[in-house]
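Subject: complex prediction, re-run

Hi both,

The earlier run crashed halfway through, so I resubmitted it with identical inputs.
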Amino acid sequence: MPGKQLQPRKEPRQIRGELTRQRILAAAARVFAEMGYAAGTTNRIAERARVSIGSLYQYYPNKDAILVALASRHLDAGAETLRRHRETAGPPDTLDAALRELVHVAIQNHLDDPQLFRVMAEQAPRSAELLEQVARYEEERVAYVRGLLEPEADVSNVDLAARIVVNTVELLVHKMIAGPEPLDLAAFEDELVAMLTRYVTAGSERSSGLRH
Amino acid sequence: MPGKQLQPRKEPRQIRGELTRQRILAAAARVFAEMGYAAGTTNRIAERARVSIGSLYQYYPNKDAILVALASRHLDAGAETLRRHRETAGPPDTLDAALRELVHVAIQNHLDDPQLFRVMAEQAPRSAELLEQVARYEEERVAYVRGLLEPEADVSNVDLAARIVVNTVELLVHKMIAGPEPLDLAAFEDELVAMLTRYVTAGSERSSGLRH
DNA sequence: GCCTATTATGAGCAAAAGCTCACCCCCGGA
DNA sequence: TCCGGGGGTGAGCTTTTGCTCATAATAGGC
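This time it finished cleanly. Structure:
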């Protein structure tokens, strides 16, 4: 399997081109969310976008490329969510606050179109490109959490603990929000933060009773 | 989407029929694990099983049915793993031990063919039947954990906590084992158990001071 | 050895999906 | 007004895949 072309085959040079591209992406998001990846055919996407398939393939060389674009957009949105959160809440000054921020941002980021996110996470074909992108993102977060834990936390293996924390947040938030059962978001956030905090500070509290 | 037929269209009456069926299932497991669900075509499965495509369709009415059979087999294996574990370790007598058992069994159960399990969990089409089966299984486990927590644990919302525990174990174990990075299984088990235990018992060690 | 139910075969059909390409539209600068 | 090129179109080609069915081989009771 030679890695497919995933970049747009043509950058739009006029506004109307850019508009068409956005229409296609928006339509793809809706179609994938509603019908899943396999059933979300390129023809259906084009139809929903009120654009001919020819136009679709002018901007996206193949179906996977559309999904990659959607994923990128989601990752960007995540960074944006974090930025906005810090604008009002300020940067976290305690381990507790940092963990809460982590969880809160993850939840916020999943609230927008959980259906689509579910499809992306569960049904999307894992192209090398996409996997790398996600892996980099994950590593970044693990490194960040490792930095948080290093000075204060009481866990035997900081690296492992960081991986556990990051993955727990990501996976659990996704599952609980995308799942069918109703969910009290605030309560969920509190519980998840409690679990992580207790995990990561239990030892120091037990030995010294100090909290940060 | 009218629910497809998922049961074998013919129960084998001779040993050679049963043998063929097993060969098909084994081949399907290998093919799906190696190539993913979409690329694991029925023809490829038949070829790998050294069986004609016609024979395959004699026992499995369609591709999805093969996957459902594989999933059932995995669930059964899970119950079996638990049984075997209790044979040597005995039934858990503390909350701690029960959580450890939960984690341990989940890990053991994922060690056999993680690739296949990854495919099943991530790429399989979610037929109503399969979803129900999994949902029932999950509910069962949530109920079990709720029973564990009810008397002893200090969490504000036992139901939510049980859901969090069950999903954390399932998702995290899957992700960490199927993931590409090397993993010290014993250390991982200890850490995960530590997280859950601290989550669920932190309050009883702290007198108060937490919200709720 | 004969006979019937069971099992096995594989060429090929029908449907569907990804994608191409030859052609047309229309914007904007000169 | 003219014209070049970016933008847009959609019938239909190609490939793939799930699956059928007419036919053949085999097992095992009599």
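The CA atoms of residues 27 and 49 of chain A lie 5 Å apart.

- K.
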